[in-house]
């Protein structure tokens, strides 16, 4: 049986916007400047807020990410969801496309490029129903700035209906993210200070 994927060719691989690049650089600098002790204090608050969202009762597979640099750490969220019996997966980039492979806490992971870690290639591909995504910057409408490659934009378009949750720190908020018609707003944004319903 042959399956077809939605055409995501209309979504550019990266944003050429100098303004967005400048906003990204400034937000990442603010995030990187947050001291480790503060981030370690805030991550459990983000975890508690995410786990309190009204989305988990009938949830399908959940994807998050393996944190790098100064990103908010979603691993405690995944561990808690695993204990609730929810299937998990993590993203991997294959042939310039983001896919999602099955994963569970304490299972092996391998280098996946871009400084992150991913499930082994032998793990089956999974279609997540909920995505927890990292943020370089965000606004209160639910628009995000990522790392400029467009992987999440294309993945969200390809997956179809999903619930998207961005997690980060309040210092990463900006007044307005420049956006294109193809940019999809997040449904929720969670920081150490608040939960924002967007979509």
Describe this structure in words.
With about 200 residues, this protein is α/β, with parallel strands linked by helices. It has one domain (about 20-195): NagB/RpiA/CoA transferase-like (Rossmann fold, 3-Layer(aba) Sandwich). The protein has 4 helices and 11 strands. The chain has helices at about 20-35, 35-50, 75-85, 150-160, and strands spanning about 60-65, 90-95, 95-105, 110, 115-120, 130-135, 135-140, 145, 165, 190, 195. Strand 2 and strand 3 (about 95-105) form a beta hairpin. Helix 2 (about 35-50) packs parallel to helix 3 (about 75-85). The radius of gyration is 16 Å and the shape is globular.
Fill in the keyword field for this structure.
single chain; 199 residues; alpha/beta; Rossmann fold; seven-stranded mixed β-sheet; two-stranded antiparallel sheet; 11 strands; 25% helix; disordered N terminus
Element layout with pairings:
Blueprint: H1 18-33, H2 36-51, E1 62-63, H3 75-83, E2 88-94, E3 97-103, E4 109-111, E5 117-119, E6 130-134, E7 137-138, E8 144-145, H4 151-159, E9 163-167, E10 188-190, E11 195-197
Parallel strand pairs: 1-2, 1-6, 6-9, 9-10
Antiparallel strand pairs: 2-3, 4-5, 7-8, 10-11
Helix pairs in contact: 2-3
Number of beta-strand segments:
11
Q: Roughly what fraction of the amino acids lie in strands? A: 15-25%
Gyration radius over CA: 16 Å
Note the gap between the termini. Answer: 35 Å
In the CATH hierarchy, the architecture is: 3-Layer(aba) Sandwich
Helix content: 25-40%
Low-confidence stretches: 1-13
């Amino acid at each position: 049986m042959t399956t077809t994927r939605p055409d995501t060719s209309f979504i550019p691989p990266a944003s050429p916007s100098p303004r967005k690049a400048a906003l990204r650089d400034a937000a990442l600098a603010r995030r990187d400047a947050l001291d480790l002790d503060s981030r370690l204090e805030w991550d459990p608050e983000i975890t508690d807020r995410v786990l309190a969202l009204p989305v988990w009762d009938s949830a399908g597979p959940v994807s998050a990410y393996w944190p790098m640099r100064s990103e908010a750490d979603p691993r405690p969220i995944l561990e808690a969801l695993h204990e609730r019996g929810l299937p998990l997966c993590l993203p991997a980039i294959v042939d310039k496309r983001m896919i999602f492979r099955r994963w569970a806490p304490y299972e092996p992971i391998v280098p996946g490029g871009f400084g992150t870690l991913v499930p082994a290639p032998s793990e089956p591909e999974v279609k997540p129903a909920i995505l927890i995504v990292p943020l370089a910057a965000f606004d209160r409408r639910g628009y995000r700035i990522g790392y400029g490659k467009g992987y999440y934009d294309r993945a969200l378009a390809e997956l179809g209906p999903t619930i998207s949750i961005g997690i980060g720190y309040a210092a990463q908020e900006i007044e307005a993210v420049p956006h294109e018609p193809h940019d999809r707003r997040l449904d929720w944004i969670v920081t150490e200070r608040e939960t924002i319903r967007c979509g």
